[in-house]
Amino acid sequence: MTCVSFFKRNGKYESVSVSGHSGYAESGSDIVCAAVSSSVNLAQRILDNSSSPYDVSADEKAAIVTIKVTDDAVSQTVLRSLED
Predict the structure, then answer these.
(1) Element of type H or E holding 78
(2) What is the model's pTM?
(3) Taking the chain, what is the end-to-end CA distance rounded to the nearest angstrom?
(4) How many H-runs (helices) and E-runs (strands) does the chain carry?
């Protein structure tokens, strides 16, 4: 099962962590995992092209990606959009 956790402090996003596999279909043809991966990748690319500082860590064996952000407007908007 895919687990997406958003972490906030005082109403501001601090990070998002995505882990696991959806189990919708076999590895390599799972459209749910593809959609989640694409969304997280897009969020990271938007942050890459902004001046917002962020940190990303990935553990491919455990299937975990974590993006830590600051409280600037771009970072907050990106994580809010990912959560929506």
Answers:
(1) helix 73-83
(2) 0.89
(3) 19
(4) 2, 4
The three-state DSSP-derived secondary structure of 31-42 is: HHHHHHHHHHHH
Which long-range contacts does 34-42 make (Cβ < 8 Å, 24+ apart)? 36/2, 36/4, 39/82, 40/16, 40/65, 40/67, 40/82
Which pLDDT score is estimated for 52? 95
Could you tell me if 45 and 31 are in contact, meaning their C-beta atoms sit under 8 angstroms apart?
Answer: no
**Position 77 pLDDT exceeds 90:** yes
Q: What is the chain's length?
A: 84
| DSSP conformational letter for 28 | T
Say yes or no to pLDDT of 38 above 90: yes
Residues 6+ apart with CB under 8 A from 35: none
Contacts of 11 (CB under 8 A, 6+ apart): none
